[in-house]
Amino acid sequence: ITPAEHKPDNQVQLKRLVRILTNVDGFALYFVQCESAQQRKELIEQLQNRLAKPIIEVETGAQNFNVTPIDLLITQHLASDSNKKNAVVCVTGLDIHLPYGDTDAQTRIAQHFNLRRTKLGKIKHPILLWGSKTAIRAFAQGSPDLWDWNSGIFEFVAPITNTHELILTIGDMGDLMQISNLSQTEKDQWLRSLHNLIDETEKSGNNRTLELAELWQSVGAIEWARSNTPAARTAFQNALNHLNQGSNSSIYHLQQRARLQHYLASTFANSGDFDVALALYQKALDDEDSSQDIKGKSATLHAMAYVVRTRGDLDAAMALYRQSLDIKEKLGDLKGKSATLHQMAYVLVTRGDLDGAMALYRQSLDLDEKLGDLQGKSATLHAMAYVVRTRGDLDAAMALYRQSLDLDEQLGDLQGKASTLAMLAQIHSSRQEYEQALQTLVESLNLFVAMGAMPDANKVAGILDGFKQQLGPAAFAALWRQALGETPQPEWLN
After folding, report:
1. Burial classification of residue 95, based on how many CB atoms lie within 10 Å of its CB (0-12 exposed, 13-18 middle, 19 or more buried)
2. Considering just the CA atoms, what is the radius of gyration of the chain in Å?
3. From CA 416, how far away is CA 221, in angstroms rounded?
4. At what angle do helices 274-291 and 251-270 cross, to 10 degrees?
5. Residue among 26, 122, 133, 14 at smallest CA distance from 70
6. pTM tops 0.85
7. Residue 225: exposed, middle, or buried by beta-carbon count in 10 A (0-12, 13-18, 19+)?
8. % of the chain beyond a pLDDT of 70
9. Is the dihedral of CA 209, 215, 217, 223 positive or negative?
10. Fewer beta carbons within 10 Å, N or C terminal of the chain?
């Protein structure tokens, strides 16, 4: 693969590829590195326009290779296309099967291609495997025999190469709604691009600490949206370290430092380290006062209120939420207002004022829908379902939870999904649907543990233990085998 310090010219690469494909006859294997799906589409169109041969695109994104192996999938596409003579086969969608950070999936798919190489070699057409840097590296490392068969590797530079342009394209990191509304695949694609850009920036040798701080902040924001708390914490700490290497007297520096301290605090709050979280929130608040960042102050007050509320001081939490809400209303911050109304409603639920809580939740939901904030909408539907369930309407609660779960899965919001699964499990238990209840509880617990969200994991573990006490050890063991097969019970549950 072309070294990172040498950026290939896309048009030169394209001309080279066209020349080779024009002259090749029969089977040949090529790897094409391209980070953007849109860029890949444009490149394939340019190939089609310049080649005197047809191109048959084999999109693998929705395929299950255990059902239809890659060689059979290509053969089926060729058989169904009447214009297949001398055709060039472009295999796309591989990044969905080789997601960034999922080494198990990368190994599994790479080995599949390696095992099917003999069958692929019998296809009398040139085959181009298109993928990101992550996908191509997975083939190089996990498909050694197939990799040795390659007749050429082509690298096309992503169209976005400027740090600030990339950050603007992702969206304002102070408002994570745009990121949270991305699909899981889109988040993975952004992570690949960001990590590649960080590598290039670090290798440049220049003093680019502010750019690196912005890039790591963007990585942290996406990892947070992926519910990967440990990775988000590491990224935000890296960003803060780079920021602190520069000047610390400007308004920009104070506001950026406050923002990063806020984000870092949220990762600790999510892990149950409330003392650390509050200390970082207070530092953020001090910087926001110094820089007169009113919007940032409002967000930090809101976050501090969550920690105080979790510790049981509802009066102090409500006072902080009201301070935050006053600022948001003055600023016309509708998204922030929706989030604070949602949290104030939760305080009212805790106090037993269900009518007051539902009124605030409806205000929050109206704002979520107006803004197109899918993650906010999911959280509010989840909260409304809890109120409806508390009132005894299990069917209506189940319907609201399922709406929320659909949005969580669409967004790849693992934390939201885990929370909703835990609540669905309790409804299943109330209906004596014990097998579904146990399956759903265990899935929720596994998600929380994988994310490092230990306070939530401990709550679900407590529910699971209570479930066992309710049924008795023998009945619970039998149910476990029925619902989860050979999966062993965790030691703490025995």
Report:
1. buried
2. 26
3. 16
4. 160
5. 122
6. no
7. buried
8. 90
9. negative
10. C
